[in-house]
Structures are given as C-alpha cells and as structure tokens.
UniProtKB/TrEMBL annotation:
Topology term for the membrane: Multi-pass membrane protein
CC terms in the record's Gene Ontology section: endosome membrane; plasma membrane
GO MF terms held by the record: NAADP-sensitive calcium-release channel activity
The Polycystin cation channel PKD1/PKD2 domain, residue ranges: 344-480
Protein name: Mucolipin-2
Record bears the keyword Hydrolase: no
InterPro entries: MCLN_ECD, Mucolipin, PKD1_2_channel
Organism of this sequence: Struthio camelus australis
Principal place of residence: membrane
Domain Mucolipin extracytosolic: 55-241
Length: 518
C-alpha cells in the first residue's frame, strides 16, 4: 500500500498542469497566477520606467545647462572624459572669474527653476580651493628643480549675499588668486544649487525637489601646458518640504497607482507562498522516495535523481517574487515622496521582470519543439562554463599584455577596463579597422608588436576558441535530438515510474530540472 501510494504521488508530481487537471481535476492556480503576474509586473515596470525617464532627463538636461552656464567657451560637446581645456594663464583666470560672475547672476540668467542651496552646517556659497606644492623654484632652461612635494590646500568661501558687497571684492582681489602655475596642482570650485522638476505635473505626478552638488575642477597635475576642466554634478532627490498643488487629478492618479502596486504585492506574495509550499512538498516526497529505495533495494538514490525533485523554476519564481515585493514597496514610497531610491528600485523591478519572463520558458517546455532548446541549454551549460574558465585565462593574459604594452600608444588600451571591452568587441568582429589604424607609429617596435598581438588574438579567438564554443553547443543539441529519437538514459527514478502503469509522464520533462539554479 505504501509503495502504491508513493508511485501515485510521484506520477502526479511529474505531471504538467494540464495532466494534473485531467487526473485529479486540480485547478492550476500557480499557472494562472504566473500569467496574471506577468501582466501586472510588466505594466508596473512600464509605469515606473516612464516616471524614471522624467527623472533621468531632468538630471541630464540640468547637467548640460550647468556646463553652458559655468564653463567659459564650452562648445556643447565634451572633449574626452573632461569637458574642455585651456592653454594660457589668462584663460585660467578668465575661467575662474567667469564661474564667480555666473554664480552671482544665476537668478537673472538661468532659464531653469534654480536657487542657491542652503546648508545649515557649513553655510551656502561658492567654495574655491586650490591645491599646490609648497614653495620652491624651477628653471626648465637650466634643468634646475627645487620643490617640496608636500602639498597644501587653501580655500575661500563666497556667499551669495556677499557677492555684491565690498567684502566679496576684497576677497576677489586678495593674494589667493595670485596663482603660481609651476606648483599649482588643481583648483576646485564647488557650489550647491536647488531646483524643482515641474515637468512631472504634466505626467500627473507630484513634483520632486532636487539638490545639485556641482564641482568644477581645473586639473594641472600633468603640468604639460594643458589644464583639463572637469565638471561633475551629483544629484540628490529630496522630499519637498512645503508644497501645495491645486486640483485633485494628481492625488487621484497617485492613489490609483498605489492601489495597483498593492495588488502586485498581494499577487507576488500569493505566488511566493504557493511556490514555497510546492518546494517543501517536493522535498518531503524526495525523502519518502529515498527512504523507500534504501529499504527495498538496499542502495542509495543517485544525485541526478535527487535533483529531479528540485524544481529550479520555482526557485527562480521565489527570487523574482521577493524582488518584486521589495521593489514595489520602494516604488510606493517613492510615489508618495517618502523615498528617493530610484536606482535601487530600478534594479529590483527590472531584474524581477527579467526573471518573470524567463520563467515563461518553463511552460513553453511542455511543447517538444521548444523543449529541445531548454534541454540543449541545460546539457551544454556545464561544459560551456568549464570551457569559458579555460578561455578566460587566455583572455586575461591578452588583456594585461595589451594594457602594459599598447597603453601608451592606443586610447583603447589606456586602462584595463577599456582593454577588456576592446578585445570583447574584436571577438565579435566589431571595430577591427579602427583598432588597427589608431595605433601610433612613434615606435616601430611597438607597432610591429601590435600587429602580432592583434592578429594572433583575432585568429585564436575567432577561428579557434569561438568555433569550439559553438561546437560544444552543437554537440549537446545533436545528443538531445538523438535521445528524443532513441530514448533518454533511464535512471532508477525512471525505472520506478515505468512500473506505475501507463500515465502521461514524459522523460523529456524529467530531464530538465534545476536549469535555472545552475
């Protein structure tokens, strides 16, 4: 009786939702809930993405506006990783005083809703700091240098209310602005501005209050005759302290969105409970089967058969549900203007939506045509991972070699991250000619080495490693197709289930567990 009950439970466990309904008229609640959840989570993500798009565009447009406002001679396009550059002492003085003058006239010249930032602890204003070496002498014509490498930093603060007074004029005419460029390292100008994003009102959302911490850096560390000017703007979203908006459309829209987010949380919580319950029941069934097999056949169940009971799709759904619940709570707080963690919320909601759509593959696997793809991915994954580990060692070797040898002569090899991205592009056949052509021919030895380096890397990875990578997947596909024609390898679990009688159990399905957990 115990053996018969176990066989019936095993048969029922490995059925798909349609077979379970035909066998015991059990309604597939999890399937219906997953379909509903896909629609709700995707809709939620679209609404959040449209709202987040307004935030991103407001930040980017303000950053561009600040560059045009405070950088003298800014062309509208950054030169490299810096905004612009200057080459004379007069240009350096003009750039500094231009920032001061623009900051002073900000309310009269700015098109945006900007104001001076107030800081109760440090005070608000324009802070100018210069970092330089301690005094020394330098005569390049005589190859003479006498300088103390220890640095000193001196700062001055110009408050908005003082800029029109005589006190500000005294500061501007002080010795602080007498720069000795041979020992000057950098000048940093920092100031805080506040703004309000009104465009969200047109999207029927409450406006956000922004704090822009702007920093302008005149970098003279190289002392090469070229001072690079960097502009950096850190944006912080804060809750507006005192606001009043006439009309009830915004409030109603906010309430509707919060109610919808509440339904998403409830559906994900129900899905989380059902999937957790299924995993617990599967582990109990696994334990019953292992104990029965040990008692009757006096041997242990193999590891592969144990994994048959662990449904990787349920694990994926549980992770997705947890991320959706946390992300939805953050979204509700952001919508109510109690939080401003857009980045954290975006990562949680975006990743959870990705997992939800990946989970759809499980139901496509019930069809033999789509099942081939899933089984091929599962069979090839271990071999592909081992192959990538070996190929990765060669890739890292080329990365370090290209960085140290070609870095001084090629902009794509200046740092490790750029080298890795460049080599990955070459593997995919992108930007090959530009990579070859941009190498500087200042050193014939390095130029010849670059040719040998690039030709060997492209030949090795495209013609050999990439071909082997594809061959591994092709071999797994051929193996799966052969198994579907002649039969899959039979394990102890499969033999045990064969004794249960003619029930719609498919070995193809039993061979696809745990793919997502890998």
């Amino acid at each position: 009786l115990t053996e018969t009950a176990l066989k019936e439970d095993l048969k029922f466990y490995f059925m798909n939702p349609c077979e379970k309904y035909r066998a015991r008229h059990q309604i597939p609640w999890k399937l219906a809930l997953q379909i509903l959840k896909i629609l709700m989570v995707t809709t939620q993500l679209i609404f959040f993405g449209l709202s987040n798009q307004l935030v991103v565009s407001f930040k980017e447009e303000n950053t561009v506006a600040f560059k045009h406002l405070f950088l003298k001679g800014y062309s509208g396009v950054d030169e490299d990783d810096y905004s612009c550059s200057i080459y004379t002492q007069q240009e350096a003085y003009d750039s500094i005083f231009y920032v001061i003058n623009q900051y002073k006239q900000l309310k009269n010249i700015s098109l945006g809703t900007l104001g001076y930032g107030q800081d109760e602890n440090e005070g608000s204003g324009l802070k100018i700091c210069k970092q330089q070496y301690k005094k020394g002498t330098m005569l390049p014509s005589n190859d003479t240098l006498n300088i103390d490498v220890a640095t000193e930093t001196e700062c001055i603060l110009l408050k908005p209310q003082e800029l029109a007074s005589k006190k500000a004029e005294l500061k501007l005419n002080s010795s602080f602005f007498n720069l000795e460029f041979y020992r000057l390292i950098q000048i940093e100008i920092s100031f805080k501005l506040k703004g309000i994003a009104l465009q969200t009102i047109h999207a029927r959302e409450l406006p956000d209050c922004y704090v822009f911490q702007n920093t302008i850096t005149l970098n003279n560390r190289a002392h090469s005759g070229k001072i690079k000017i960097y502009f950096d703007s850190d944006t912080d979203i804060q809750e507006c302290k005192d606001w009043h908006i006439s009309g009830s459309i915004l409030q109603k829209n906010t309430q509707y969105v919060l109610v919808f987010d509440g339904f998403v949380i409830i559906s994900c919580l129900a899905s989380l409970i059902l999937c957790t319950r299924s995993i617990i029941l599967a582990l109990k069934l696994q334990k019953r089967f292992v104990n029965f097999f040990l008692e009757k056949y006096k041997r242990h169940v193999c590891h592969a058969d144990r994994l048959e009971f662990i449904n990787g799709w349920y694990v994926l759904v549980i992770i997705s549900d947890m991320m959706t619940i946390i992300g939805s709570i953050l979204k509700m707080e952001i919508k109510a203007k109690n939080l401003t963690s857009y980045d954290v919320c975006s990562i949680l909601l975006g990743t959870s939506t990705l997992f939800v759509w990946v989970g759809v593959i499980r139901y496509l696997g019930y069809f033999q045509t789509y099942n081939v793809l899933i089984l091929t991915m599962q069979a090839s994954l271990p071999k592909v991972l081992r192959f990538c580990c070996c190929a990765g060692m060669i890739y890292l070797g080329y990365t370090f070699c290209g960085w140290i040898v070609l870095g001084p002569y090629h902009e794509k090899f200046e740092d490790l991250n750029t080298v890795a991205e460049c080599l990955f592009s070459l593997v995919n056949g992108d930007d090959m000619f530009a990579t070859f052509a941009q190498i500087q021919q200042k050193s014939m030895l390095v130029w010849l080495f670059s040719r040998l380096y690039l030709y060997s890397f492209i030949s090795l990875f495209i013609y050999m490693i990439l071909s082997l990578f594809i061959a591994l997947i092709t071999d797994s596909y051929d193996t799966i197709k052969k198994y579907q024609q002649s039969g899959f390898p039979v394990t102890d679990l499969h033999e045990f289930l064969k004794e249960c009688g003619s029930v719609g159990y498919r070995k193809e399905q039993a061979s696809m567990p745990f793919i997502c957990c890998c």
